[in-house]
Amino acid sequence: QVQLEESGGGLLQAGGSLRLSCAASGPSFSIYTIGWFRQAPGKERELVAAITGSGSGERTYYTDSVKERATVSRDNAKNMVYLQMNSLKPEDTAVYYCAAGDTTIYWKFSGYRYWGQGTQVTVSS
Q: What is the distance in angstroms between the CA of the first residue and the CA of the last residue of the chain?
């Protein structure tokens, strides 16, 4: 079992930047695909970015709305995954979750078995 915990959220100004962190407590962290999701009230949870495991080339994915503004990275030695976001917009406001899956099907919600509790990101204009 993998336990995940997000941190780094808060209140930010439009145009600013932040780095979210996801800490994993379970073993074999390096093999997991890690996804960053976000969900605003009344809206569907959406995938923001993902990075595959060490055996899958640590490939990255970004949704179009954050592409060129976001960078997902991982430090397997520390069991950590990060999401750096720049040029923040009010529409980035959401609860951000990290999730872990043991496949490379990063684009599907069902591909993730473990979820963190989320961290709130609020971007004001």
A: 40
Report d(CA 102, CA 1) in Å as an integer.
11
- The span from the CA of 34 to the CA of 112, in Å, is 8
Q: Which residue has the tokens 């979750």?
A: 97
Over residues 48-82, the pLDDT tens digits come to 999 999 999 999 999 999 999 999 999 999 999 99
Kindly provide the residue ranges of all beta strands, DSSP E only, lying in the chain, ordered along the sequence.
4-7, 10-13, 18-24, 33-39, 46-51, 60-62, 70-75, 80-85, 94-101, 114-115, 119-124
Distance CA 14, CA 51 (A): 26
CA triple 78-84-89, angle to 5 deg:
155
